[in-house]
């Protein structure tokens, strides 16, 4: 293992540990002002799907893009926890019978299998709304305009023109609403999975009140990383190991889905990943050595086995 990889792994593990502790606190039974009660069934379900699993890649991107600008780590961790809440909600809803109908997630029964559909829908809703509670908190940044920009960017990444929009395009492409609709794989990916990953990267620029050039650099990096993440996912679906994935492989093929792999072939998809890594490195060049951890992050995303 190279020094850069070892340093990256240590930092990813540390952020995962800190995020876990923070989420456990945010999802505790302690009432916040204006809350009337935290119902046990709801809290247990939200904790089941948010704690004890996941790579915490999105919080890591927030923490490391923030570190480039010297943003206090605690503030970045809070913004990262908000993003992770959105990610966990999306996985719960994606697993539901009306969406992907999955039985396994992160090596455990999916939430609706463990409980029931209604509880899973509400736990997802609870995580989505909690994310917006967290990201507006005073501890994130003293300037309310910065908090507003961060919140609006999160809404756009998660919503119509981002993840939710991407999800409906994906379902339409599977033929869920009649004939299969033609799929623009790159655009679908940019919305469905790319938007949250890109948000993790621009969050640091927003919190760090960066220049426009620095923002653009993290934006370019985030887009390249997001696409590399999705291609790696498509490749794992073809070549991956169910035990490492924590879910069955081959789901895309079973649904006859158009993916980067069906469009480019396995070798073409791997070449595209290499091109994206070069683009990610080049985008980070303006940060010098401060961009090294993010460079390692894009390699991790491209080479991941789960
Ligand atoms: C239901 C509104 C709604 C959206 C769902 C992102 C998404 C949209 C669904 C996820 C479907 C899926 C499994 C896509 C593959 C890529 C992906 C997001 C994998 C899971 O992310 P990781 O690898 O997971 O970061 P961990 O478990 O490490 O957090």
In short:
This protein is mostly helical. It is built from 14 helices and two strands.
Blueprint of the fold:
Elements: H1 3-26, H2 40-50, H3 57-67, H4 73-95, E1 104-105, E2 108-109, H5 111-114, H6 117-135, H7 144-158, H8 163-173, H9 185-207, H10 212-239, H11 242-245, H12 251-254, H13 260-284, H14 292-303
Antiparallel strand pairs: 1-2
Helix pairs in contact: 1-3, 1-4, 1-14, 2-6, 3-4, 3-9, 4-6, 4-9, 7-9, 8-9, 9-10, 10-13, 10-14, 13-14
The structure holds geranylgeranyl diphosphate (GRG).
Describe the structure.
It is a single chain. The model has no long low-confidence stretch (mean pLDDT 94). The chain contains 14 helices and 2 strands, in the order ααααββαααααααααα. The protein has a single domain (3-299), classed as Farnesyl Diphosphate Synthase. β1 (104-105) and β2 form a beta hairpin. 70% of the residues lie in helices and 1% in strands. The chain is mostly helical. The radius of gyration is 19 Å and the shape is globular. The longest helix is centred in the C-terminal third of the chain and has 28 residues, at 212-239. 41% of the residues are buried. It binds geranylgeranyl diphosphate. The site of geranylgeranyl diphosphate has 16 residues, from α4, α8 and α9.
């Amino acid at each position: 293992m190279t020094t850069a990889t070892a340093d990256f792994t240590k930092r990813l593990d540390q952020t995962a540990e800190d995020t876990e502790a923070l989420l456990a606190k945010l999802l505790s039974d302690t009432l916040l002002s204006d809350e009337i009660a935290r119902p046990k069934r709801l809290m247990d379900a939200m904790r089941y799907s948010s704690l004890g699993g996941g790579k915490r890649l999105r919080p890591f991107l927030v923490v490391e893009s923030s570190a480039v600008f010297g943003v206090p780590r605690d503030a970045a961790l809070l913004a990262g926890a908000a993003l992770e809440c959105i990610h966990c909600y999306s996985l719960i809803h994606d697993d539901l019978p009306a969406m992907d109908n999955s039985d396994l997630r992160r090596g455990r029964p999916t939430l609706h299998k463990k409980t029931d559909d209604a509880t899973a829908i509400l736990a997802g809703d609870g995580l989505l709304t909690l994310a917006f509670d967290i990201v507006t908190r005073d501890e994130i940044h003293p300037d309310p305009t910065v908090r507003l920009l961060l919140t609006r960017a999160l809404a756009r990444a998660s919503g119509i023109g981002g993840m939710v929009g991407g999800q409906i395009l994906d379902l339409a492409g599977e033929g869920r609403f009649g004939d299969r609709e033609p799929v623009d794989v790159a655009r679908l990916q940019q919305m469905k999975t790319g938007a949250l990953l890109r948000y993790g990267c621009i969050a640091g620029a927003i919190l760090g009140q960066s220049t426009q050039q620095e923002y653009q650099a993290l934006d370019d990096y985030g887009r390249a990383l997001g696409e590399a993440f999705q291609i790696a996912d498509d490749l794992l679906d073809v070549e991956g190991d169910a035990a490492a994935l924590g879910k069955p492989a081959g789901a895309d093929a079973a649904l006859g889905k158009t993916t980067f792999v069906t469009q480019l072939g396995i070798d073409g998809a791997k070449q595209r990943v290499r091109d994206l890594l070069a683009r990610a490195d080049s985008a980070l060049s303006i940060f010098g050595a401060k961009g090294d951890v993010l460079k390692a992050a894009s390699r991790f995303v491209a080479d991941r086995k789960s």
